[in-house]
Amino acid sequence: MDFTFTEEQEMLRTSARDFLETECTERVVRDIMDGDLGYSPELWKKIADLGWLGLIFPEEYGGAGMSVIDLAVLYEEFGRALFIGPHLSTVVLGGMTILEAGAEEQKKDILPRIAQGERILSLALTEPEGSWDSRAWDPEGVTVKATADGDSFVIDGTKLFVHDAICADAFLVATRTKEGADPADGITLFLVDAKSPGITITPLRTIADDKQAEVVFDKVKVPKASMVGKLDGGWAPLHRSMQVGRVMLCAQMLGAEQRLLEMSVDYAKTRIQFDMPIGINQYIQEHCVLLLREVSGARWSTYLAAWKITEGEPSDFEVAVAKAWGSDAHERACWRAHQVHAGVGYTVFDGVIPLYSRRGKTFQLYLGDTAYHKEKVVKELENWPALEEPKGKPLGIWEEAPEFWVPEWWPEFEATNKAAQGG
Amino acid sequence: MDFRFSEEQEKLREEVHQFFMENLPSDYLPRGTRGQTLEQYKFWMDLQRKAGAKGYLTPGWSKESGGLGLSDMEQGVVMEETSYWGAAWPGSQGIRVCGPPVHVFGTDEQKRKFLPPIAKGEVIWYQGFTEPDAGSDEANVSLRAVEEGDHYILNGQKTFITAPGPADYLYTLARTQDVIPKHRGISLFLIDAHSPGITYRPLPTMGIFTVEIFFDNVKVPKDRLLGELNRGFYHAMVTFEFERSTTGAAAGARRTLQELIQFCREEKRNGKSLLEDPSMRDHLADRAIEMELTWLQGWFAAWHFSQRDKLGSPPPEAGGLHNKVVSADRAKQLIDSMGLYGQLRRGSKYCRYEGRAAVSWEASRSTHPAGTIEVNKIVLAGRGLGLPRIPAKFNKEIREAVEER
Fold this sequence. Notes:
The complex is a heterodimer of chains A (423) and B (405). Chain A is of the alpha+beta class and 423 residues long. Chain A is built from twelve helices and ten strands. In chain A, the strands form three sheets. Chain A has a four-stranded mixed β-sheet with strand order 1-4-5-8, with helices on one face. Chain A has a four-stranded antiparallel β-sheet with strand order 2-3-7-6, with no helix packed on it. Chain A has a two-stranded antiparallel ribbon with strand order 9-10. The radius of gyration of chain A is 26 Å and the shape is globular. The N and C termini of chain A lie far apart (55 Å). The model of chain A has no long low-confidence stretch (mean pLDDT 96). In chain B, helix 1 runs parallel beside helix 3 and helix 8 (278-306) runs antiparallel to helix 10. A four-stranded mixed β-sheet of chain B has the order 1-4-5-8. Chain B has a four-stranded antiparallel β-sheet with strand order 2-3-7-6, with no helix packed on it. Chain B folds into three domains: 12-123, Acyl-CoA dehydrogenase/oxidase, N-terminal domain (Butyryl-Coa Dehydrogenase, subunit A, domain 1); 126-231, Butyryl-CoA Dehydrogenase, subunit A, domain 2; 245-384, Butyryl-CoA Dehydrogenase, subunit A, domain 3, CATH 1.20.140. Chain B is globular, with a radius of gyration of 22 Å. Chains A and B meet through helix 7, strand 10, helix 8, helix 9 and helix 11 of A and helix 1, helix 2, strand 6, helix 7 and helix 8 of B.
């Protein structure tokens, strides 16, 4: 057991924090939220130069070959700094899927360009019908069809809640290519140029101002060569990169919560009411302490999941636990920060608490909320093996004592005591 | 970062696991009884001795003291296996609470006399801290110890003292000096439970069995003072450090969850497996998530403690508080999932799930041992997060002002 971060991870954390504090200020974040693109091209270029877009790719594809734990360290800092941009869409959901399932030419073509900051991807998965419930993130929800047509496929249908659609160069689209008993069998991924004829993008107005969109594919013709992975076999690789994505959302929420905790404690110590710092009040203290509880829970559940993925061990249970806890814990953490800051934490034009809680809503919902992941947790529990029973001779002594409030050894103890005291 | 145990640790775990597999009866029902029958008590006492002979009660203690001379991490592994089976050691207070400070602050003679019997599972200790006016305010101890020749004479009362079996020794906080701040005048004593002048009165609770202890001119030899005179409160804080680094909670929760899943598999509700019931699924998911978080936070604390020479004191973490906060929810969800049947005790006609919902619900009405939830929050706010508190020197003034009104 070892709960330490490596020296490289600590360095990554420090340099990321320093960089983001200067380059990803509240002003920059607000400008991106107020703008139309959903990211800042200047900032994107700078993080490409720092190597953050290729961090997770092998060196042969222009990356740094770092691990999912390393990436989580970076995402913790993203969360802290309210970083906004298509990193998750491009690097994790798009890039890692291509890295795993893509053909060699695709990888050689796309991954180095992602790492250079020259190509932005967006995952088109969720659809209007499935977005009410768990179908958003399960294979059942993929109904948009891709139909073979000679050397091409024709994609027809609507994807909704598509992150980073507006700035994307290409969509990774999950399509239905076969109907059968197993909904995971029959999903095919295509990398579709965002400028393809027939694509219409309509931005949605969300709590987080994070530029999600409706993307309509109206008989969009794509060459067969744009298929990522095998025909009908797209779900498995996509699922694996979504699992990494979930851990990254947890890390982002963790980083944000840590900052909210620091701000709340700081405010509680310095804000004076009734001639005293408000933090002397135990109602305020409770908010801070329970915020700490959310952070404590989020930290190690996130890194355990990241570690399991890094080690290549089965990780579905750990990822589900982390996101199931993380999503609702984040909601509570933001709410507590609001309570401590009261009106000061509620204004729109200045102060970052609302930025955290608004962005938090996206983190909670994206790639499955608490209810969704709790169901995944139970699915894992159902597979637990039968209980192991001990092998000793049965004794038949486990009934409750008839007078159960006082144990049966008590009278003897009293007698011994009296005798020992000579009475 | 590494969440694996070493090969040696896994080997030790397997050994302890096998020890319980062989020695627990096949019809064993972990937890779920409150008042022990004589047979149950004797069974645990016998098994405790067997475990003690193997060094499984105190693997982290030195060999001279009856341990295995292993590290805190191995101690954590053994504790995990022990808690997994819900082993109700009558000597648990000595093993976990009273022994460690003797290890740290005891004279060689005290160590020789007191530690090996604890490690061998032969004796039962009570931790005598709480008093009627010293609950959350532990420093308000008023059991008085007055020096007289080669003895101290003790007068006063303890209450809510956990009593997992008949006591042999009492590990007791007593006032040896009237001083402000109050915690600078308290000392620790190791007292024979049968000393003349001590009387006990049962004080059963809805959960664990506790007693009141009355001291009437009890003579305690001077060599039973533990550590420095008037430093007892500080010494006792060490106890809390040891208690903090527990890895057992999650293991117990794991076994309970496995049993609940087994029960759900076998139980039919309206013709369907209980495992398909939506509210039961919600309950199971919450239990699993909590178990995982408890496991991680418990091991983080244990690991940090094991590295204390290098890392110093741990950062504020809310693991202990988390466990307390969720324990009430846990019991409520279980009993709610059983409708009218939830209230039935073991042995009653129609009782389901061995009456565990009733017992755990009753037990969960109390989360105060080792500090109430509220005191834990206050400590975490003050010492952990550095939030302000009213300086103690104003306490009396505030009290008088309030009383005047």
